[in-house]
Description:
A hairpin with a 2-residue loop joins strand 1 (31-37) and strand 2 (40-46). Helix content is 35%, strand content 18%. The chain has 4 helices and 4 strands, in the order H-E-E-H-H-E-H-E. By secondary structure, the protein is an alpha+beta fold.
Amino acid sequence: MLIAQSKVTAQGQISVPRDVRRKLGIGPDSVLEWEDEGNKMVVRRAGRFSSEDIHRELFGAKAPQPRSLSELKEAIAQTGQRCYGFKFKYCGTPSSATPKAVASAIFAPL
Length: 110
């Protein structure tokens, strides 16, 4: 089923149509994966980031200090109380593709 078409420029670039960007949840700086499946190419949004990728995006190249799970949960609760006046709960991995968006959306207000 044909969803959209793109034209390749002389430099080998393509524009991803708006409907496809919305369907895949991609925007600037999103990464796409291209997979060869015999007689067709499959393009999909790459969206897996390690905790190191997310930490690097938020805090720079400084290495994180090891913390216990209880220390992490307490720090999250304290930050929520201090900055927003309420605690946070884990809400799963969001659909956005950038490490910064993943990091900022991992915890949502209760």
